[in-house]
Write a structure and sequence with these properties.
By secondary structure, this protein is mostly helical. The chain has 28 helices and eleven strands. Strands 1, 2, 3, 4 and 6 form a five-stranded antiparallel sheet that branches. Strands 5-10-9-7 form a four-stranded mixed sheet. A hairpin with a 5-residue loop joins strand 3 and strand 4.
């Protein structure tokens, strides 16, 4: 124990020497950090169930480990063409047994093989817990130093927060907010990629982060501290296996942008003279990320043991971390990113009819640490004016929904503002069908999939949320894996009540987290401690203790994407409502795919037949014609808010004020976009024609019978009007009529009236259907 402690103290002393002694605050923080390290060591050993040596202490410090490229990148890439089209045959999604994947076919196995070949002298090239443990067990000093670095950054920040809270200054004025934001941003830059990623997510949440702090954190999107150009050029030449001048006739002397894992240079190719973006990985990125994730493994294990002890939560946080970590690790493989980018280029440009663009990739120049792609002129989406931002947000949302909910369910996992550009000159883009491009997506390092069944359930869930069908929402949560399938009825009722209280403000009021914090003015501190927010916190706390809730692994990535995209949308529209904005896309999916998928057919039935379609094949009431027309309008982006007091988000029984014309609806119905509903409509049209003909036949018979009689005498003499005998016995007429045109039931009469009223509404007539 004495020898072990001596080693730890030496590591602590060495790390402390690196601290800037001119900064008194940092000196005090480092002294505190040094003493905290020993306490953490003791706690770590106690939690782990016994004595621990130096090999078990973990955290994250800059490392000078020489990272090998591996034998598979530069040599194998010579068989690839210099355009994205050459690799189209390789862009198949690699789906694992659990339904999600971060790697294309063969990429992960290739990296695992290279990890084994390189031995334990370098960090693993994929997220492999065993390999990471073997690597970092042999480097206790680096891990100790990481604890010191983290605590020396975190201690001054949290000391300032506690001081401001104690003195009542916390987030009270612009200066205190800016000072804290600067400390946070600088600390995140110091701590590296893992923390910069967190800052990027926070930077696009105007509903959570004050504007002053948001502007400071936005610098983390593409303005992170750079590493030297000399180092960058060296990495490029190592990855290319040749001098820069053999490939690039021009290259910028300084990076154009710098982010958490890489920085970008602008260059021009010798081969074709085209301008390109050259993305170069930070020299120590692999070591730094690997170290952080190894530390988080231990921290999450401790957190899970606490959560399971004090709450009813069933989330497997270790698996959740593994999913996040594998995704984060995949971002370090630029060759995998290049293949992702080729796949998205082949799908997104066509799906959005050229309005969203993905740059061309030069596969023969890409490797694990280098990505070369087409240069696109543009500016960040959040720099657009509000009106333009709202329009572009709608396009971006459609693009994301198509990624998420269309086969094969591949979606961009990191859509922050620095990765979405407003295209300046579409005519310069290297694609014949992108001359109307408005947005350009960048950075496809984090891409994953959602299983097919879950995609269909999400579509139904949006319908249920829009209509505030909380019982159905609870069932959707069960289908998605948030709740156990064997949950009892009493617990379902409790879950439904909690969801109603928690989700209602967010979904129906809009504005993101502002719906919880309120809009009554005052500082953020006042809002956080307001009675309404505290009541919500109590609800969530009670739910966590009692409800067996868990988070599916893939949802960790999906939630991150949704959080970022919603934050961008909120900048253009502070009252943005995610579910309301998604509904037109869902309406289009139901019209198109309801004939192919039972889940979509059920969702469509729930809209068109109200509560009479609980299962496929069950007898239904007649279709509600007005709801059909409303749904068609919804699919054309015309949605009416519910104003009837029902509490629903979308009014399914009221035509929007800007309703589509009859010709527009007919065009939609006969297009491929409504192929899924046409079979249902044909059946309903046949029924409708039959009912109308039956009604006309019966009324015509009554009219003919009446016409054969003499006219009624005027006034009180009417009863003296003689009745002529019918040439055909009335009983025979009635019998024949019942066979040809059976009487219409009251329910069928309502249906006919709805059809007639709808026709009158389109023809702009104001008539009583009984006439």
């Amino acid at each position: 124990h004495g020898a072990v402690q001596l080693q730890r103290n030496r590591a602590t002393a060495l790390s402390m020497q690196k601290v800037n002694t001119n900064n008194n605050a940092n000196n005090m923080a480092t002294v505190a950090a040094a003493s905290m390290v020993n306490e953490i060591l003791k706690i770590d050993a106690t939690i782990s169930g016994g004595k621990k040596g130096d090999d078990e202490l973990v955290i994250y410090e800059s490392s000078t480990t020489n990272i090998a490229t591996g034998s598979g990148d530069s040599r194998a890439k010579s068989s690839s063409s210099s355009s994205s089209s050459s690799s189209s045959s390789k862009t198949k999604s690699n789906t694992k047994e659990d339904g999600y994947s971060f790697y294309f076919d063969g990429m992960k196995s290739q990296r695992l093989k290279q990890t084994g070949e390189q031995g334990k002298d370098q960090p693993p090239l994929v997220y492999d817990k065993v390999a990471m443990k073997d690597y970092w067990k042999a480097r206790p000093k680096e891990l100790n130093a990481r604890w010191i670095q983290f605590l020396s950054v975190a201690t001054p920040f949290f000391t300032r927060v506690i001081t401001d809270l104690a003195t009542g200054k916390f987030l009270k004025d612009e200066k205190s907010i800016r000072d804290l934001a600067v400390m946070a941003r600088e600390g995140m830059e110091t701590l590296g990629p893992s923390y910069i990623k967190l800052g990027q997510i926070m930077s696009v949440r105007p509903d959570i982060i004050p504007e002053v702090a948001q502007k400071e954190l936005e610098k983390l999107q593409d303005g992170v501290k750079v590493f030297s150009t000399e180092e960058a050029y060296k990495v490029i030449e190592e990855e290319l296996g040749c001098p820069l001048t053999d490939v690039f006739s021009e290259i910028s002397p300084e990076p154009i942008a710098a982010a958490s894992l890489a920085q970008v240079y602008r260059g021009r190719l010798v081969s074709n003279g085209k301008q390109v973006a050259i993305k170069v990985q930070r020299p120590e990125a692999l070591s730094t990320v690997s170290k952080d994730l190894y530390v988080l493994q231990r921290a999450v294990g401790l957190y899970q043991s606490i959560i399971k002890r004090w709450t009813a939560q069933e989330t497997d946080y270790v698996t959740l971390l593994d999913t996040f970590a594998e995704g984060f690790y995949s971002e370090l493989d630029f060759l995998n990113e290049a293949k992702n980018q080729v796949f998205f280029r082949e799908t997104i440009v066509s799906r959005t009819k050229g309005q969203v663009y993905v740059p061309n990739v030069y596969m023969d120049l890409c490797s694990r640490r280098l990505l070369v792609s087409e240069w696109v002129d543009g500016y960040k989406l959040t720099e657009a004016k509000d009106d333009e931002l709202r329009q572009l947000t709608a396009l971006g949302q459609q693009c994301f929904l198509e990624q998420l909910l269309e086969a094969p369910g591949y979606f961009h996992g990191d859509p922050h503002a620095g990765n979405i550009l407003k295209v300046l000159d579409p005519s310069k883009l290297d694609h014949p069908n992108a001359k109307q491009a408005r947005l350009c997506l960048l950075d496809f390092g984090l891409v994953t999939t959602v299983p097919e069944n879950d995609r269909a359930t999400i579509v139904r869930g949006i319908v249920h949320l829009a209509n505030r069908d909380w019982d159905a929402v609870t069932q959707d949560f069960i289908e998605l894996g948030f709740l156990p399938r064997d949950i009892d009825r009493d617990m379902q009722v409790r879950v439904t009540g909690v969801m109603k209280r928690v989700l209602t403000p967010y979904i129906f009021q809009g504005g993101g987290a502002k719906a919880f914090l309120g809009d009554s003015g005052g500082s953020y501190t006042d809002k956080i401690f307001s009675p309404s927010f505290q009541a919500l916190a109590r609800d969530l706390n009670a739910a966590a203790r009692e409800i067996p809730f868990k988070i599916p692994p893939y949802f960790a990535i999906l939630a991150r994407s949704i959080t970022v995209l919603e934050g961008i949308a909120l900048k253009g529209d502070p009252n943005y409502r995610l579910v309301m904005s998604s509904y037109p896309y869902v309406a289009r999916r139901l019209l198109r795919d309801s004939s192919d998928t039972d889940a979509f057919r059920l969702a469509l039935n729930e809209i068109l037949y109200a509560d009479s379609a609980d299962s496929i094949g069950k007898a239904k009431k007649r279709l509600n014609p007005k709801r059909l027309v409303v749904l068609l309008n919804n699919a054309l982006d015309r949605v009416a808010d519910a104003r009837d007091g029902s509490g629903a988000l979308v009014d399914l029984d009221t035509l929007p004020s800007d309703e589509a014309s009859l010709s527009d609806l007919v065009d939609l119905l006969v297009s491929e976009d409504a192929k899924g509903i046409r079979a249902t409509l044909i059946d309903e049209i046949i029924v409708g024609i039959d009912l109308i003909l039956r009604q006309l036949t019966r009324r015509s018979t009554e009219w003919v019978t009446s016409a054969l009689q003499p006219p009624m005498l005027p006034g009180p003499l009417g009863f003296l009007t003689p009745r002529l005998p019918s040439p055909i016995p009335s009983a025979l007429v009635e019998s024949a009529l019942n066979k040809i045109a059976p009487p219409i039931t009251a329910e069928e009469q309502v249906y006919v009236n709805d059809l007639i009223l709808l026709a009158f509404e389109f023809l702009e007539l104001d008539e009583d259907p009984d006439k």
